[in-house]
User: Which sequence fits this backbone?
């Protein structure tokens, strides 16, 4: 009987732990959304921030976040795809491969401040890019590469070997097989990985405060020439992102409505991440259906 | 004529050129990542070591000194760069948050995988996946507006400090540790459970004596991974810890961590000065700790693989 009683006690305890966690997590999500939603309006999402008076928005920061995300993806996706292809299709089991795998693992576990500081040293100071979107995009690339490479490699590994044999039997070279058969077959999974990593990039701040900078100069949204300093597309301008903005106004902000702005920005960030998650599921599912006629 | 044909046959075909090109390109991409990692380690190390080589600060003094005040020189004519307050601050918040998170994470993982897989998959899984993705500044902001005032009203003082940092990190690493623990439990073969139940073990006996034992390496990896994340987290901790470079004396007095000093300090110092070099040395400590966490995870993995 003793073991039955302890069984009951243990299982009851596990129920308590699990429900505590659900309560904590639900309260957290609920708090972010409920305290943030009242602050969100069209004005809040589109108008520039104000330093000393209330009523500022997050328009420029929001644009910067998306622009930086797109730029980072443009830089990091080809590199991650190449690395993923090599690791899964060409790499032999030898010391070079294991060295490479170890270094990817190290990169993925480096604190993002360290990555940001390295970006600061190399791009901001050494290459003279200054605090700019480009420096930020390179720093985020380092931050993003290991996870993206791993998810692409896993996506490629999930494609059955029959597909490779089919391609080779048709007389295609290995590279052509990869490019025309394996990558398209793995595309839904790859895309899911890309979108999930986009969510991570979108909320990253520590790697950006010393690379993309902490200021958001006024932008002229009618000027789309990337070489003009006030153009939104200029990659050499300093760009505070939404996540950096939250940190900045909470550590040294002096506007009277800092709390409301942070709540609103937090809710926007969390809703965006939620959106990325849902999009990843939807796109993966939809694309898979279309490509496999299933 | 014969020569021409020979040339044509011996020349690389278009397809083989393409093959070489593709292989080289993808190899270069991979090498780029590897070179970057080495570059990060070398650059941070060379910057961080210059405190000791060009500013002649003693390494032992740096690691054990209790006073962090790089602008001031002490009685021995040495600058006051004792990093012990930050190093201990980082370790204390990391260990406390891991101690707090472990039972909750493992309990939830067991619940999700062993007791109520249906509810686990329907409710807990999506929530945890979402929480893994919440940006750390948001955790910091919640800590600032909810946790810090709560600690202030219970314990008095400013509310900023180790305790606030611990709570924020606890909630932050919880989803990561939980989902990795779930993976560890999931990899325990089903027949282990069936065998235990067939021998007459209760559900808890099966979990405690069989499933948890088999999943121990995976769980340890999850915890160390969570600790590595907590140790390297910057902004969320910086927002709630109070940023006073003092040795932590109580859980509710302002303190600082390696990352918090780095985020607040790097922008206010001049490149190449001692003040700046000392901060890079802190970054080097952070880097070395991250490498050690990585090594520990590897060792656990190897040991777990052997016992199977």
Assistant:
């Amino acid at each position: 009987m003793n073991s039955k009683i302890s069984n009951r006690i243990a299982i009851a305890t596990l129920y308590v732990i699990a429900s505590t966690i659900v309560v904590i997590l639900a309260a957290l999500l609920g708090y972010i959304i409920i305290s943030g939603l009242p602050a969100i309006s069209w004005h809040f999402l589109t108008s520039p921030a104000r330093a000393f008076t209330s009523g500022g928005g997050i328009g420029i920061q929001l644009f910067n976040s998306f622009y930086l995300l797109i730029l980072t993806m443009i830089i990091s996706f080809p590199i991650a795809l190449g690395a993923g292809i090599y690791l899964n299709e060409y790499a032999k089991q030898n010391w070079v491969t294991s060295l490479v795998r170890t270094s990817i693992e190290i990169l993925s576990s480096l604190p993002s401040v360290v990555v940001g500081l390295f970006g600061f040293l190399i791009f901001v100071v050494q290459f003279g890019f200054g605090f700019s979107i480009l420096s930020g995009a390179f720093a985020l690339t380092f931050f993003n590469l290991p996870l993206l490479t791993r998810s692409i490699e896993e996506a490629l590994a999930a494609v059955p070997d029959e597909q490779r044999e089919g391609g080779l039997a048709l007389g295609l070279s290995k590279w052509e097989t990869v490019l025309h058969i394996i990558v398209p077959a793995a595309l839904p999974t790859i895309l899911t990985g890309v979108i999930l990593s986009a969510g991570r990039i979108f909320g990253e701040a520590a790697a950006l405060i010393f690379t993309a900078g902490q200021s958001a100069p006024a932008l002229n949204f009618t000027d789309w020439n990337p070489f003009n300093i006030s153009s939104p597309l200029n990659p050499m301008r300093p760009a505070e992102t939404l996540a950096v903005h939250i940190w900045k106004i909470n550590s040294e902000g002096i506007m009277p409505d800092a709390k409301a702005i942070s709540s609103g920005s937090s809710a926007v960030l969390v809703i965006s991440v939620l959106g990325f998650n849902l999009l990843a599921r939807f796109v993966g599912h939809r694309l898979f259906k279309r490509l496999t006629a299933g | 004529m014969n020569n021409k044909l020979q040339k044509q046959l011996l020349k690389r075909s278009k397809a083989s050129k393409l093959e070489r090109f593709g292989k080289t390109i993808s190899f270069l991409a991979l090498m780029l990542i590897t070179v970057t990692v080495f570059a990060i380690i070398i650059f941070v190390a060379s910057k961080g070591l210059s405190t000791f080589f060009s500013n002649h600060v003693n390494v032992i003094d740096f690691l054990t000194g209790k006073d962090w005040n790089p602008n001031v020189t002490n009685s021995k004519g040495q600058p006051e760069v004792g990093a012990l307050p930050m190093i201990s601050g980082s370790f204390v918040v990391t260990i406390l948050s891991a101690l707090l998170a472990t039972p909750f994470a493992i309990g939830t993982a067991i619940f999700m995988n062993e007791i109520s897989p249906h509810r686990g998959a329907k409710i807990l899984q999506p929530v945890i996946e979402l929480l893994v993705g919440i940006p750390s500044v948001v955790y910091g902001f919640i800590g600032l507006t909810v946790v810090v005032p709560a600690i202030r009203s219970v314990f008095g003082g400013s509310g900023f400090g180790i305790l606030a940092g611990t709570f924020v990190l606890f909630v932050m690493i919880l989803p990561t540790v939980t989902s990795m623990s779930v993976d560890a439990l999931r990899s325990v073969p089903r027949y282990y459970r069936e065998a235990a139940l067939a021998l007459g073990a209760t559900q808890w006996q099966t979990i405690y004596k069989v499933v948890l034992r088999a999943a121990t390496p995976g769980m340890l990896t999850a915890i160390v991974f969570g600790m590595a994340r907590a140790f390297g987290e910057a902004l969320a901790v910086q927002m709630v810890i109070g940023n006073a470079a003092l040795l932590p004396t109580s859980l509710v007095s302002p303190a600082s961590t390696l990352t918090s000093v780095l985020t607040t300090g790097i922008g206010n110092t001049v490149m190449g000065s001692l003040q700046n070099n000392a901060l890079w040395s802190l970054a080097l400590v952070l880097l070395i700790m991250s490498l050690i966490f990585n090594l520990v995870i590897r060792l656990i993995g190897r040991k777990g693989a052997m016992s199977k």
